[in-house]
Write a structure and sequence with these properties.
- This protein has one domain.
- It contains 6 helices and 7 strands; from the N terminus they run H-E-E-H-E-E-H-E-H-E-E-H-H.
- Strand 3 and strand 4 form a beta hairpin.
- The two termini are 28 Å apart.
- The model has no long low-confidence stretch (mean pLDDT 86).
Length: 147
């Protein structure tokens, strides 16, 4: 009887661990996909849409780099399905844009150019807006398991 009870507890813990991994993988994938949504850049006639990565030359979107526990596992047009398939609960996932102008596009910038013209470019906040949605996204991934 004791072995059966212990085996039952162990099996329940394995099921719970599988659910936790499924929820974490789904939420991470959803946030990463949100932070890499694309919109045609203004220079190409696109509209300014906060929360989207502007794409003109593809330099910014292709500068994305993803790491698990500090080791880069993807660069450029990242497949998040491949990324999360290699992670374990407790791993540290980082997804960043490494282009020199990535921060300026994310947060906005203003100043004066070489010709003395002033400019003020508002931020796109494609990373910030995605990360801010983590609680809602996590809850959406938990919802199928609520009894």
């Amino acid at each position: 009887m004791t072995q059966t009870f212990s085996a039952g507890i162990r099996q329940s813990l394995d099921v719970a661990q599988d659910k936790i991994e499924y929820i974490a993988r789904g939420a991470i994938q959803d946030v990463c996909e949100l932070m890499s949504r694309r919109v045609e850049g203004l220079a190409d006639g696109g509209a300014f849409i906060e929360g989207f990565v502007p794409v003109v030359s593809s330099e910014l979107i292709q500068s994305q780099e993803v790491a698990i526990n500090g080791g880069v596992v993807g660069q450029g047009d990242v497949s998040y399905v491949a990324l999360i398939s290699g992670m374990q609960v407790g791993d540290v996932i980082e997804a960043v844009y490494t282009a020199p102008h990535a921060r300026r596009i994310e947060y906005g910038f203003s100043g004066e150019d070489k010709l003395g013209r002033t400019f003020n470019h508002p931020g796109r906040f494609f990373v910030l807006r995605a990360v801010q949605q983590w609680p809602t996204i996590f809850d959406m991934n938990v919802a199928p398991f609520k009894v």
